[in-house]
Amino acid sequence: MTVSPYLKSIYRSHTCDDLRATEAGATVTLSGWVLRKRDHGGVVFVDLRDNYGQTQVVFNEAGRADIQDVRVESVIKVTGKVVKRDAAMINTKIPTGEVEVHCEHLEVLTTAEVLPFQVAEDDKAPEPTRLTYRFLDLRRDKVHENILLRSRVIKRIRELLHDRNFNEFQTPILTSSSPEGARDFLVPSRFHPGKFFALPQAPQQFKQLLMVSGFDRYFQIAPCFRDEDPRADRSPGEFYQLDMEMSFVEQEDVFKVGEEVLYELFRTFAKEPVTPAPFVRIPYDEAMRTFGSDKPDYRNPLRLSDVTGAFAECSFQVFKKVIADGGEIFAIPMPVMAAPARKYFDDTIELFTKWSGQGLAYLIYEEGGWRGSIQKFVGPAEQEKLIAQLDLKPGQVVFLGAGKAKQILPYLGRLRNKLGEDFKLLTGGYHFCWVTDFPMYEYDEDLKQVVFSHNPFSMPQGGMEALQTMDPLAIKAYQYDIVCNGYELSSGAIRNHQPEIMYKAFAIAGYDQAQVDEKFGGMIKAFKFGAPPHGGMAPGIDRIVMLLAQENAIRDVIAFPMAQSVEDLLMGAPSVPSEKALREVHIRVVMPENPAKAHGA
After folding, report:
1. How much is the pTM?
2. What burial letters (b/e) apply to 122-157, b meaning 16+ CB within 10 Å?
3. Nearest CA among 240, 11, 286, 38 for reference residue 147
4. Residue 40 belongs to what H/E stretch?
5. How far is Cα of residue 318 from the mean position of the Cα atoms in its chain?
6. What is the pLDDT of residues 448-501, one digit of tens each?
7. Greatest CA separation found in the chain?
């Protein structure tokens, strides 16, 4: 096998993945970590591992004493002859499995201490221990491969975008605060007492300024910082996104590039089928009413249906009151199947009530009639309407939830996900969709005012006329997400590039012109000197790699993630600065009365 000349050194003539039967008889030098040791009497077998793979090294009688006391995960250098294994001893699980190296010289480069957990095997070490010794965790095959996959994914992204006339630029890390919807990380200024930089939640304004500067197509693998609570699919504090922007485009142009790049990227690395372009498109309102989520998982065949009409005249007081108060009844019909045990229904209802504070009903349609939690309240008229509307067949279960759509739909969407998993209804592969036509504004019950729903820099559909004549809560934005298998991979928008429309859009959300000039003066100023129509998107690198690696937690595809406690357990961050460091940036720390609850303030 051809060995890269860039990898050869005094420590190795080959990597631990290079050797094949064609090298039999050659004298080679390998270096790496002792993954496993097996003492078979007069012979010790060592699995030697480096970044590229592993090779079995044999220590016969003469070398047995030298390797005997070397702990696993120590780093060694061996020189010896490549020998073909007997046919019965070939290891088909590794590329080097046809050969082994018979050691003639051993040099211990560094000795490992006793391990806090096993590297060669998964011993279910707790997460805090794994993250405290993350450098050991990263040696494990699966985690190690995930980080290498991440590198290959980013390399492929760059290739795909350069092929499409994009240029890679870097934007500032120290910048000003921006209303992206999350808390900023603030950095005190030594030169300007009392003033703070903010770490960018996204390079939003800068990438738009690059379009105004005439660069036409931009991208970067951008670090973003948001002081948010941790989740399995969201890293606390920081994440990376493929930030991209294009000039002289409308929504369809962005969709074309997004579909091409993501399809080619997933097709390159995915182990399962990938839905080709064009991706399914679904408006936000329809997504919420059909899936109970703006992140619909198309692998799940279950759909929500509005069955309010079927219960308009029913005797069930709970449903009657909901309808009278302007609420709706939604159903989730299951496929034909053997009805689960009563305990499953009871547990599911209890869980749904815990989530939502609201009840859940169910009906079972059978050859001989109906049964379920509200069967006695459902007369022949309601039964016929449900059968007709939902096209029910005997053997189907129907779950029913009631309430104001905005309150009940997200919980029914969560139930839909649970049912799909519980009954193994999800199909394989990667299923993409666009969610389009997001609302421009929403009403904030706490602030008692209209606020931006998502990105404030999006162009409202209908432009100035819509802002001047429509109910703000009815205005849609040229805003879209790409969703894959229930995960939001990207948000994006066609941008508002006209100063007068931007002033009006912000005025509806409670910002006067002076505030807009103060917060976004650089961008507003630029727009007054000629701005092209532009738009873009920003797929999340971490989530893309998580899906491709078929992991459930984003920390498993990040080299040095924070713990769920929002701490770097390896490096000991955050830490307490010295009084001198605080004085230099003009900061005095005032501790909260209850530090444990300070993050929720």
Report:
1. 0.92
2. eeebeeeebbbbbebbebbeebbebbeebeebbeeb
3. 240
4. strand 27-40
5. 39
6. 899 999 889 999 999 999 999 999 999 999 999 999 999 999 999 999 999 999
7. 91
